[in-house]
Design a protein that fits this description.
- It is a single chain.
- The chain has helices spanning about 60-70, 70-75, 85-95; strands at about 15-20, 25-30, 30-40, 40-45, 55-60.
- The protein is an alpha+beta fold and about 100 residues long.
- The chain has a single domain, classed as 2-Layer Sandwich (Hypothetical Cytosolic Protein, Chain: A), CATH 3.30.1230.
- The strands form 2 sheets. The protein has a 3-stranded antiparallel sheet.
- A hairpin with a 2-residue loop joins strand 3 and strand 4 (about 40-45).
- The relative contact order is 0.18.
- Bound molecules: zinc ion.
- Zinc ion (ZN) binds near residues 23 and 63.
- Zinc ion (ZN) binds next to strand 5.
Length: about 100
């Protein structure tokens, strides 16, 4: 049988880890949702490709509550979260 080729071209040797802004847990990027500040407001960046200042939240509604409750997200993103943004985030949270 063909021997398994060991590729040394794997960029994801160690998975990128991110800290949740709410619970401060460090998790793999895939377990988190990235939020990015933009001129149009907060973008929920599911692809992880939007450039800009980002914050991460676990895919757990509790963390979203926590992030939205105070001004934690605003502090991390250094911007104001508008009522429209908040609504968008709440809606996303409800679908988690
Ligand atoms: Zn969390």
């Amino acid at each position: 049988m063909a021997k398994t080729r060991t590729s040394n071209k794997k960029p994801e040797k160690h998975l990128p880890e991110r800290t949740c802004v709410a619970c401060r847990e460090v998790k793999g990027k895939r377990e988190m949702v990235r939020l990015v500040r933009s001129r149009e407001g907060i973008i929920i960046d599911e692809s992880g490709k939007v450039s800009g200042r980002g914050a991460y939240l676990c895919k757990a509604s509790g963390c979203w509550d926590e992030g939205l409750k105070g001004n934690r997200l605003e502090q991390v993103l250094r911007c104001q979260i508008t009522p429209a943004d908040k609504k968008k985030l709440e809606e996303y949270k409800n679908r988690l």
